[in-house]
UniProtKB/TrEMBL annotation:
CDD domains: GT4_AviGT4-like (cd03802). It comes from Roseomonas acroporae. Residues 18-122 form the Glycosyltransferase subfamily 4-like N-terminal domain. GO terms for molecular function: glycosyltransferase activity. This is Glycosyltransferase family 4 protein. It holds the Pfam family Glyco_transf_4. Residues 175-315 form the Glycosyl transferase family domain.
Length: 355
């Protein structure tokens, strides 16, 4: 098939540091190319891919301080996709909803994977106004806030099986510290992770970025806890993909104390790829990703999380890795999307209208 992948421009594909959506787009694109498909990736110019790259901007917007209007490049990106639409059998968007009006007159099947939260009040009227546009959810729980959406399917994320692997020899104990990986924000719960670690007496290593919007939260709610904990908590900052295997693989467990309806939680399967169990709060997609008592523990609060941490050694890290390979490989993800592409291609392009 001739497939277009349209990525966000905030990060490169794959991202240099943090960037879950862009990493998934990269994994999907490379697997589709490996399977013999003709893929064009619309992304920033610093992206690296085996597909044809149509570079919209020279580098990722987050890394370019000269860019003030980040919306303008995305509008340009959609315009370029529309101009080239006749070259593709299907167009796959990963940019939320900016393409909806532009695609109304395009005679090519398309779909959009929604990677973010859908419980914001302004979103529902927008999707209700485009009832024919096909969307893909990244977990079934992600769908709950929206009704009347044309869901083409749910496709769980996947990672290459050869990038993140257990970093220590089989049988060697990894019990020196707990890990927190991702982004410093209230919904991700780094403050809860610190309290959990301190209650267990274990070290906590935090590898996370701090976006500008979350700087006040970090300074007022997180940094004081880190300073109070002293040597028990280490804040590393953002790490790249090459550092993740050692960081996650060397941990006794990953703490995922989220306080929001997490659409997927890529870090959970990154930990699983390293054979590392996860202790996660029962929110959003967590029950769809984790198998309680197998790949980690699903808990309701900080007290039960502390108890779960003390049981991490009872879980088999080889089984965790095998579960990752079975359920969350990039190849499985690509095959799931190909099934949707073929179904859309056979059905033809939806006749879009604004309700």
């Amino acid at each position: 098939m001739r497939i277009a992948q349209v990525a966000p421009l905030a990060e490169a594909v794959p991202p240099k540091l943090y960037g879950g959506t862009e990493r998934i787009v990269s994994n999907l694109t490379e697997e589709l190319v490996a399977l013999g498909h003709e893929v064009t990736l619309f992304a920033s110019g610093d992206s690296v891919t085996a597909a044809e790259l149509d570079a919209i901007v020279p580098c990722a917007l987050r890394l370019d301080p000269s860019v003030r209007d980040t919306l303008a490049p995305t509008v340009l990106q959609v315009s370029r996709v529309v101009r080239r639409a006749h070259e593709f059998d299907v167009i796959h968007f990963h940019i939320d909803h900016l393409q909806l009006l532009a695609m109304r007159g395009v005679e090519v099947p398309f779909l959009t994977t929604l990677h973010g939260r859908l419980d914001l009040p302004e979103i529902a009227p927008l999707f209700a106004a485009h009832p024919e546009a096909p969307f893909v959810s990244i977990s079934d729980s992600q769908r709950r806030p929206l009704h009347g959406v044309n869901w083409a399917g749910t496709v769980l994320h996947g990672l290459p099986t050869d990038v993140l692997r257990p970093s220590l020899p089989q049988g060697r104990r990894q019990d020196g510290y707990l890990a927190f990986l991702g982004r410093i924000s209230p919904e991700k719960g780094p403050d809860a992770a610190i309290r959990i670690a301190r209650a267990t007496g274990m070290r906590l290593r935090i590898a996370a970025k701090v976006d500008r919007v979350d700087e006040e939260y970090y300074e007022t709610a997180v940094r004081p806890l880190i300073e109070e904990a002293g040597d028990q908590v280490e804040f590393i900052g953002e790490i790249g993909e090459s550092q993740k295997a050692g960081f996650l693989g060397g941990a006794a467990g990953l703490l995922f104390p989220i306080d929001w309806p997490e659409p997927f939680g890529l870090v959970m399967i990154e930990a699983m790829a390293c054979g590392t169990p996860v202790v996660a709060f029962n929110r959003g997609s967590v029950p769809e990703v984790l198998e309680d008592g197998v790949t980690g523990f699903i808990v309701e609060d900080e007290i039960s999380a502390v108890a779960a941490v003390r049981r991490l050694a009872s879980l088999d890290r080889g089984t965790i890795r095998q579960t990752f390979e079975t359920r969350f490989s990039a190849r499985r993800m690509a095959e799931d999307y190909l099934a949707l592409y073929r179904k859309l291609a056979q059905a033809g392009r939806p006749q879009l209208r604004v309700a």
